[in-house]
């Protein structure tokens, strides 16, 4: 059958991946030196764990393996097995994720999988006897079982090391010590949770088999993970890139440049994915149908796969899209970051920039003038942990709904993380930056009314089947100047103007200029902002940037007790907003022309660690085009051709195919409690241009201590009357 992922040329030579490499050029002396500088930089920022910590992790894994072996023998004896079967009973620990890939850092958790026999059940034995054993051990702390998650998991610390432990129940009476989880046969006659639990190990192992040089892959992946975290695009649940997504993207670059060192791989990562035409999929190997009948990613046959905007396909059967959560807004943000990275790498090749610029943190709370703030609270730590996980799994839906109901005119940028106000008990909050779509004409008086959208989102969140009293959610609009202080280090608000670097100032100025030109070309009424218009710009920003008409409408969980709203953490929304034509919200960089690549000699890679199962010392005589920018561009275009290149992502995802991968089995059928997104009459509320609830409807203003956030209370009867008027308006 050959090696999975290995392809053949006409002359019989082989390469890894579904296409031949773009370039086989090896490193120059300059590449070697810059790679050493890169590795030194990564060490300097603390991305490598100490030898002592590495030994401690190995000891924890060894001890955990002993525990599960004792556990499976204990339950086998309790189930009446004879001593021979008890002696043969076995369970085994596998690792996956960043630890298995070899890119984990200090303090990172270890993703582990316990594989057990068919008579060791998940509900009674794994979350029963094994959980009991762990809870009685002094080495184990912070034990938190999550049996009702889409992928059931036990979280705990063992001797201070964080561990996530999954369970896979195989259809075998005895688990061999040399079990190979990469074999397809291991998936026979197992439940869905086992398939998902095994998937992490199977994908991780397959990635390591499909890269030509493991050491170069690991160093490059460490680099890209650190970059993604610094630039605010590291979060799968928020619709950005997670660890496995980045591993697959980096792995593909390693296949396309098999002899390159990390310095060149980083540069080509940004170059290739800046040019990539999504939704063409990124794949390390061809998608195989398999023999077990499991569904695999294929937009030609599966309707829901046609809505995926940035497909990055896992290489192990059953092949899936690992970036299901990506939305139009998050794809736009990541594309801008790829472009920025490519430009900085080109400047570094000309010795005009350095790594510090590439790793400059994204100034999220400077980049936008308007934000949504989502606050959640609960009555105790366990409830907050459950509530937090559920809300995070639903935040993507808020982004999707806003994009859909404003026809893409209002763009969202979710912040990939949460904050906590220490002055409040059991509290978390999330933020989304908001901006008008750039390059479109601005209509006088145009206003985005997303109150019904937010209200619908809260109804879906409050449909949580494990909801308990005290689990509350509150969504409100907040301007940049009113961002609460607790999100800043030490609770001290920085001086934004002094924090914007020269690069960001240049990017911002270019973005303003570009937007103004686009609006002028379309007959828009945008104000052209320059140095002489600074006073006018400030006046527009302060007085006419965002008119807010906020509703104080309580949204409580369906069929649950309604509590009197006495605190700012209530299910209220404040989300009618007007963005004026002078608004500038993004720190993205303008496109610049890329200089030609430097000519490099074709020599073997200088790294000592290679994947012996892949290429070894065999050289593939693909043409070296690394010194020709146009030929490399054409080669990148060529690798996007294939059986899926006709896939065009559809504009919006209908409700009937929406899934929440993290909490799929916790979503109940809401019946009529949640509005039907496909209802044309409701969708008309997305953008209100002519009819806007006037500010005169505001009857009172409440100020709270959470950083100046305002709540504008609307007369409910008047508000409902306006909704009736609006219905008649849109039906005319």
UniProtKB/TrEMBL annotation:
Residues passing through the membrane, by range: 233-253
Boundaries of every Poly(A) polymerase nucleotidyltransferase domain copy: 17-211
GO cellular component, as recorded: nucleus
Obligatory cofactor(s): Mn(2+); Mg(2+)
Keyword Iron-sulfur on entry: no
Highest taxon of source: Eukaryota
Classification via SUPFAM superfamilies: Nucleotidyltransferase, PAP/Archaeal CCA-adding enzyme, C-terminal domain, PAP/OAS1 substrate-binding domain
GO molecular function ontology, one term from the record: RNA binding
Domain Poly(A) polymerase central: 216-360
Domain Poly(A) polymerase RNA-binding stretches: 364-423
EC supergroup of this enzyme: transferase
Subcellular location: Nucleus
Segments for region (Disordered): 498-568, 587-621
Reaction it catalyzes: RNA(n) + ATP = RNA(n)-3'-adenine ribonucleotide + diphosphate
Skewed-composition ranges (Polar residues): 510-520, 607-621
Similarity-based family: Belongs to the poly(A) polymerase family.
Protein name: polynucleotide adenylyltransferase
Source organism per UniProt: Pisum sativum
């Amino acid at each position: 059958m050959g090696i999975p992922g290995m392809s053949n040329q006409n002359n019989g030579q082989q390469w890894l991946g579904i296409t031949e490499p773009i370039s086989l050029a090896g490193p120059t002396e300059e590449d070697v030196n810059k790679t050493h500088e890169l590795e030194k930089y990564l060490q300097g920022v603390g991305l490598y764990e100490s030898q002592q910590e590495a030994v401690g992790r190995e000891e924890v894994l060894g001890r955990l393996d002993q525990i599960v072996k004792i556990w499976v023998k204990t339950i086998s004896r309790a189930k009446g097995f004879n001593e021979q079967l008890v002696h043969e009973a076995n369970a085994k620990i596998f690792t996956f994720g960043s630890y298995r890939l070899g890119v984990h850092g200090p303090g990172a958790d270890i993703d582990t999988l316990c594989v057990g026999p068919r008579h060791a059940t998940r509900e009674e034995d794994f979350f029963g006897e094994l959980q009991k054993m762990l809870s009685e051990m002094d080495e184990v702390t912070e034990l938190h079982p999550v049996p009702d998650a889409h992928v059931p998991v036990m979280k705990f610390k063992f001797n201070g090391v964080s561990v996530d432990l999954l369970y896979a129940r195989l259809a075998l009476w005895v688990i061999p010590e040399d079990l190979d989880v990469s074999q397809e046969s291991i998936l026979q006659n197992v439940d869905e949770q086992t398939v998902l639990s095994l998937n992490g190990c199977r994908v991780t192992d397959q990635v390591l088999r499909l890269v030509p040089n493991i050491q170069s892959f690991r160093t490059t992946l460490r680099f890209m993970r650190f970059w993604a975290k610094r630039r605010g695009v590291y979060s799968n649940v928020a619709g950005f890139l997670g660890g496995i997504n980045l591993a697959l993207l980096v792995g593909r670059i390693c296949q396309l440049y098999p002899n390159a060192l990390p310095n060149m791989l980083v540069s080509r990562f940004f170059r290739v994915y800046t040019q990539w035409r999504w939704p063409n999929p990124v794949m390390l190997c061809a998608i195989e149908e398999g023999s077990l009948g499991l569904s695999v990613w294929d937009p030609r046959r599966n309707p829901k796969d046609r809505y995926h905007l940035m497909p990055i396909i896992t290489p192990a059967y059953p092949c899936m899209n690992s970036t299901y959560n990506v939305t139009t807004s998050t794809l736009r943000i990541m594309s801008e970051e790829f472009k920025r990275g490519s430009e900085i790498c080109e400047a570094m090749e000309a010795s005009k920039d350095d790594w510090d610029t590439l790793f400059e943190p994204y100034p999220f709370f400077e980049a936008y003038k308007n934000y949504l703030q989502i606050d959640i609270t609960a009555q105790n730590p366990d409830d907050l942990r459950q509530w937090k996980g559920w809300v995070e799994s639903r935040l993507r839906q808020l982004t999707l709904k806003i994009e859909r109901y404003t026809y893409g005119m209002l763009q969202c940028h979710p912040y990939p993380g949460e904050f906590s106000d220490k002055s409040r008990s059991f509290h978390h909050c999330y933020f989304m930056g908001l901006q008008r779509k750039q390059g479109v004409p601005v209509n006088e008086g145009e206003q985005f009314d997303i109150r019904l959208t937010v209200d619908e989102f809260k109804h879906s969140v409050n449909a949580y089947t494990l909801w308990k009293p005290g689990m509350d959610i509150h969504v409100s609009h907040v301007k940049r100047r009113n961002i609460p202080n607790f999100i800043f280090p030490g609770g001290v608000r920085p001086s934004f103007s002094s924090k914007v670097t020269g690069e960001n100032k240049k990017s911002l100025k270019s973005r303003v200029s570009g937007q103004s030109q686009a609006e002028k070309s379309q007959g828009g009424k945008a104000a052209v902002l320059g140095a002489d218009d600074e006073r006018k710009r400030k006046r527009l920003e302060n007085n006419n940037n965002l008119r807010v008409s906020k509703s104080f409408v309580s949204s409580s969980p369906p069929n649950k007790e309604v509590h009197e709203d006495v605190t700012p953490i209530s299910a209220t929304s404040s989300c009618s907003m007007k963005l004026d034509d002078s608004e500038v919200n993004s720190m993205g960089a303008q496109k610049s022309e890329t200089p030609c690549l430097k000519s490099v000699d074709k020599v073997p890679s200088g790294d000592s660690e290679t994947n012996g199962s892949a290429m070894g010392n065999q050289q593939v005589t693909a043409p070296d085009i690394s010194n020709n920018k146009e030929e490399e561009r054409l080669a990148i275009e060529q690798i996007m051709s294939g059986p899926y290149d006709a896939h065009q992502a559809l504009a919006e995802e209908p409700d009937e195919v929406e899934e929440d991968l993290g909490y799929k089995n916790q979503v109940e059928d809401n019946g009529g409690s949640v509005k039907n997104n496909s209802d044309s009459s409701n969708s008309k509320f997305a953008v209100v241009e002519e009819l806007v609830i006037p500010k005169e409807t505001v009857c009172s203003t409440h100020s709270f201590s959470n950083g100046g956030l305002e709540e504008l209370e609307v007369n409910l009867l008047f508000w409902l009357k306006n909704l009736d008027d609006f219905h008649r308006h849109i039906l005319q």
